[in-house]
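Worked example 3 (structure in, sequence out).
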């Protein structure tokens, strides 16, 4: 049924047959109680989806239904929490049966039973049940309040029971406290029932009681309660009391728009007939005032005051109820008093009030406007406040409040579009349209953006006067505004192309978004200003930029950060605008603006350290970058030295900042350095200033040896960002430093990749300036050595970062070399592909995916084609070119390892692939171990009839064992025992465990040892082996051997364990081990603890 929640009316054709089917089960005497409860549960679900007001009308309400429903409800247990749906539906059903047009006393019959006991009248029974369920803690309480409203408003009941019930309710209100759960529930039931009674009852019947109830409600002071539901019900009851005290008249002075045809608005958007003019303005106001002139009860002032207080409540549901109450009560007031209510509502829009008051005020204005109670004469006062509410955003600590205010302001604009004729809103169209567009595009909250888009759409359709409304709606629809980046960088540019919206959008970004508390909003705002600059370049240069330069040096940190970034983006946008005509950027700017831009970093130098530095350093570096790219005329200016110092200091001071800010500082400083060198450190094209070249390269190479890790990272990134002319004749110096420090940090590997890409390839070139025949082997050797970095610390396998960086560098350098001279790769390509195959077979999913992707990129590369790849044709058969939509998922062991194990058939890849598989098979992750082992065993099954392949595989495995005897990383994974090389395996095992205390290694090799756990595990595994292979020993001693293995306490005393060990050796025909003796200072002694 959930799919009908949005459009429940679709259920209407089916409600009757569903209801009849379920009632048939309920009425059947053969239906067991669980089935009856289940049927009522289904009825509740249908009622919840369609709404109880509609659904309860379909319930049968014949005279014959009264007694069965009442009897069934009487048999229910109010404390049974499993069947509350049954009681809820029965109460609704009973409330419908109370509508029968007969006196209930006629249904009583003889009130004396056959046994002589007096029976309770139906009227009293229903009232008793209603009272009892008004104090329960489940949803039955809501249904009981509906029952009360239907039952006590009957003519026969209200004459006899209404006064008593009101006394009972007021007693509960006055004597019950809301400090306990029980008291809250009782107050809830009493307030609900009273609100329902005053809503559905006739005014003449309840007018006498309204002052008394209001007086009791005032004494209860529910506005001060901590329970939201009680405050809401208090507001609801107050407004119902106010409506009871006032005559039920529809105000004749209210504004009536007349025809609201959407089609008429679209077809004739500018035609306004005289009949559409407000009758109030043509003298009808006085006549309406005379007709509506009657005495207003004194209590109404109290009612309105409580409703106005409710508009400022901290909970939305209370404010919403108060806003609806304001609209309902105001509709029955004379025009003078109604205008006073509007004035009181407008007082909520003060910046001394909280966001709750602003939100409540917007809801109230929307209700007043929707009902025609906000006269057009008030629009000049209301519209400016709504425009402020659309931009309401107050910072509170690390966040802000005001989302609900902006959302409700959009609702006001939506309501006004439906309420007023276009001629009334015509003076305010430009302001409202601009404000809604700004909220649609620039608001931080997606709900507000969508609400503003909906309000704009409603105004376009109903008013027909919004400039370019259809064009804007086509792009800024409900789904398009869901992406914030798309709003700032795409939609805003399109809307700003319409001159009515250009300057308001720019002004809003400068005033509200450049200094926003959210860093991402500030950055998006600066990018938006960059994109909007071509729409109004003169306005940006002459008006906006001076404002930003002032903000860049004020006390607000967020304002400084955003203003500096905005200056950078605007300058670069102006440069790009003038570059096609070779117009320098200084033609757009005044001399004062140029001078202020040049000296910004000096004015904010005190903010470079500490928390402020985390924002100011990246922003100033971005400004340096953009001004360098914009070719500002600062060549040979001393300011360049200050810029360079700031960049260098940022890279050397990374350890002073939080981890979250370091990456941004590094990236901005490196980008600024590259642009600065490109523009200001060339004496002529592609020729570096020798002094700056020597200074920078020497400085950054020295920084690579710094004891501070982050300083080394920063200097490595700086070296990698230098342009080609800056590292020419310095390449060998950089390469030698990299060789000595390559395994310290993955940033050094990235450094090499960037340096080689910058230097370029020249086969016969100088090794000090190019990647050439004399140094390419050394470069590949350094990168391939990094593939063996398996450093671990408390963070895990940190060497994987180095291996991944090395793989990326190998790919980039390979493509660079192949594009120039493929023959340079001859000795290195095979080792590179083998190392990638090894990494693609290892256990870390991320590394395996990275290696596998690079392996396939090199194999499938067409432009250029990578030569000298061993077994290219066989590899293409194993890894055919796949569709982009269906790539091989290297992170999934189930997909990767079946392909990887096929490389074992290729001799040149077998050693490295098996080396990687050894790590995966001996890993800890269940899925990796499972799929790698299964794929390896499948491969072995495929070659078990090929003796040559088996011998080759065995020899390779033994070679891996020999090469890594002291490396636990590979020894744990060698758990293979097959074919004729078991003796070699045993010999290598003995060699591998000498002086070892690694329990996992010892357990994996299955041999007796001095450790308790090893002895116990070994005995258990020997026992299991003998159960599987019962023909390896003499059957005559089998039982005795098995008993010895299972009954001996192998964790006991060494002397006892040794005797059992010797007895096993005798039974198995194995020579008894002897105590190992060692010579110390010429004396022989037994090695302690050795069996």
């Amino acid at each position: 049924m959930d799919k009908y929640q949005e459009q429940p009316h679709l259920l209407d054709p089916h409600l009757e047959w569903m209801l009849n089917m379920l009632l048939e089960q309920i009425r059947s005497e053969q239906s067991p109680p669980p089935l009856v409860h289940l049927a009522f549960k289904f009825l509740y679900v249908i009622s919840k989806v369609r709404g109880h007001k509609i659904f309860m009308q379909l319930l049968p309400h014949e005279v014959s239904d009264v007694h069965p429903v009442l009897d069934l409800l009487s048999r229910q247990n109010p404390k049974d929490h499993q069947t509350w749906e049954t009681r809820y539906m029965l109460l609704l059903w009973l409330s419908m049966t109370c509508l029968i047009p007969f006196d209930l006393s006629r249904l009583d019959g003889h009130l004396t039973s056959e046994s002589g006991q007096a029976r309770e009248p139906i009227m009293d029974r229903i009232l008793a049940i209603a009272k009892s369920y008004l104090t329960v803690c489940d949803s039955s309480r809501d249904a009981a309040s509906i029952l009360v409203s239907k039952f006590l408003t009957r003519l026969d009941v209200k004459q006899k029971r209404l006064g008593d019930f009101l006394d009972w309710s007021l007693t509960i209100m006055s004597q019950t406290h809301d400090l306990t759960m029980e008291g809250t529930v009782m107050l809830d039931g009493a307030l609900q029932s009273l609100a329902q009674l005053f809503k559905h009852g006739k005014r003449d019947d309840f007018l006498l009681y309204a002052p008394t109830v209001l007086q009791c409600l005032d004494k209860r002071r529910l506005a001060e309660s901590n329970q939201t539901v009680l405050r809401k019900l208090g507001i609801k009851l107050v407004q119902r009391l106010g409506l009871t005290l006032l005559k039920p008249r529809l105000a004749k002075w209210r504004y009536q728009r007349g025809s609201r045809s959407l089609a008429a608005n679209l077809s004739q958007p500018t035609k306004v007939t005289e009949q559409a003019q407000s009758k109030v303005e043509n003298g009808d106001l006085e006549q309406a005032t005379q007709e509506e002139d009657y005495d207003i009860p004194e209590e109404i002032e109290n009612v309105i005051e409580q409703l106005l207080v409710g508009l400022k409540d901290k909970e939305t549901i209370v404010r919403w109820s108060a806003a609806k109450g304001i609209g309902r009560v105001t509709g029955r007031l004379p025009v003078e008093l109604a205008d006073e209510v509007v004035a009181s509502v407008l007082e909520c829009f003060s910046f001394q009030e909280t966001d709750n008051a602003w939100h409540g005020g917007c809801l109230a204005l929307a209700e007043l406007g929707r009902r025609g109670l906000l006269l057009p004469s008030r629009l000049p006062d209301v519209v400016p406040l709504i425009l402020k509410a659309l931009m309401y955003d107050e910072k509170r600590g690390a966040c802000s409040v005001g989302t609900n205010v902006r959302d409700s302001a959009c609702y006001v604009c939506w309501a006004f579009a439906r309420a007023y004729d276009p001629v009334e809103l015509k003076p305010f169209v430009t302001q409202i349209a601009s404000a809604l567009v700004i909220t649609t595009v620039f608001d931080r909250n997606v709900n507000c953006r969508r609400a503003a888009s909906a309000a704009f759409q409603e105004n376009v359709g109903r008013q027909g006067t919004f400039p370019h409304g259809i064009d804007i709606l086509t792009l800024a629809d409900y789904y398009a505004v869901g992406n914030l980046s798309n709003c700032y960088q795409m939609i805003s540019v399109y809307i700003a192309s319409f001159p009515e919206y250009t300057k308001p959008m720019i002004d809003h970004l400068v005033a509200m978004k450049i200094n926003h508390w959210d860093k991402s909003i500030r950055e998006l705002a600066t990018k938006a200003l960059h994109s909007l600059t071509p729409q109004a370049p003169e306005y940006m240069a002459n008006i906006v930029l001076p404002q930003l330069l002032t903000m860049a040096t004020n006390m607000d940190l967020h304002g400084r950060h955003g203003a500096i970034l905005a200056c950078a983006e605007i300058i670069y946008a102006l440069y790009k605008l003038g570059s096609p005509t070779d117009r320098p950027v200084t033609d757009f700017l005044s001399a004062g603006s140029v001078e202020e831009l040049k000296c910004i970093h000096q004015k904010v130098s005190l903010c470079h350290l500490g928390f402020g530095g985390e924002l100011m350093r990246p922003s100033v570096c971005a400004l340096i970058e953009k001004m360098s790219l914009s070719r500002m005329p600062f060549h040979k200016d001393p300011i360049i030295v200050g810029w360079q110092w700031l960049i260098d200091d940022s890279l050397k001071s990374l350890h002073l900042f939080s981890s979250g800010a370091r990456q941004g500082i590094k990236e901005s400083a490196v980008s600024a350095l590259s642009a600065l060198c490109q523009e200001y450190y060339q004496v002529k094209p592609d020729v570096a200033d020798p002094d700056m070249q020597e200074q920078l390269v020497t400085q950054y190479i020295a920084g690579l040896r710094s004891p501070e890790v982050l300083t080394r990272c920063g200097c490595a990134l700086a070296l990698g960002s230098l342009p080609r002319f800056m590292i020419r004749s310095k390449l060998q110096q950089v390469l030698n430093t990299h060789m000595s420090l390559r395994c310290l940090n993955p940033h050094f590997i990235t450094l090499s990749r960037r340096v080689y890409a910058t230097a370029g390839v020249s086969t016969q070139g100088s090794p000090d300036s190019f990647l050439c025949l004399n140094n390419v082997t050394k470069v590949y050797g350094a990168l391939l050595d990094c593939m063996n970095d398996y450093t671990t610390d408390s963070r895990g396998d940190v060497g994987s970062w180095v291996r991944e960086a090395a793989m990326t560098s190998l790919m980039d350098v390979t493509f660079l070399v192949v594009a120039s001279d493929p023959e340079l790769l001859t000795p290195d390509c095979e080792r590179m592909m083998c190392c990638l195959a090894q990494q693609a077979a290892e256990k870390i999913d991320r590394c395996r995916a990275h290696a596998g992707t690079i392996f396939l990129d090199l194999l499938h590369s067409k432009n250029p084609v990578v030569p000298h790849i061993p077994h290219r044709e066989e590899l293409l058969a194993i890894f055919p070119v796949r569709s982009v939509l269906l790539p091989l998922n290297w992170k999934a062991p189930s997909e990767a390892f079946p392909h990887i194990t096929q490389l074992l058939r290729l001799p040149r890849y077998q050693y490295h692939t098996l080396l990687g598989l050894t790590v995966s098979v001996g890993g800890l992750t269940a899925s990796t171990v499972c799929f790698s082992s299964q794929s390896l065993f499948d491969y072995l099954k495929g070659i078990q009839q090929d003796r040559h392949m088996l011998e080759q595989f065995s020899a390779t495995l033994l070679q891996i064992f020999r090469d890594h005897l002291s490396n636990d990383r590979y020894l744990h994974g060698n758990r293979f025992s097959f074919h004729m090389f078991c003796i070699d395996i045993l010999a290598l095992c003995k060699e591998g465990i000498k002086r070892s205390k690694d329990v996992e290694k010892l357990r994996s090799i299955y041999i007796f040892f001095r450790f308790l756990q090893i002895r116990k595990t070994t005995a258990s595994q020997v026992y299991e082996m003998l159960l599987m292979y019962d023909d390896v020993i003499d059957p005559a001693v089998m039982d005795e051997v098995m008993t010895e293995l299972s009954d001996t306490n192998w964790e006991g005393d060494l002397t006892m364990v040794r005797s059992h060990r010797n007895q096993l050796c005798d039974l198995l025909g194995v020579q008894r081990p002897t105590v190992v003796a060692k010579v110390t200072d010429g004396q022989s002694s037994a090695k302690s603890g050795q069996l």
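Notes: Confidence is low (pLDDT under 50) at residues 269-283, 973-981, 995-1009, 1079-1091. The two ends are 74 Å apart (CA to CA).
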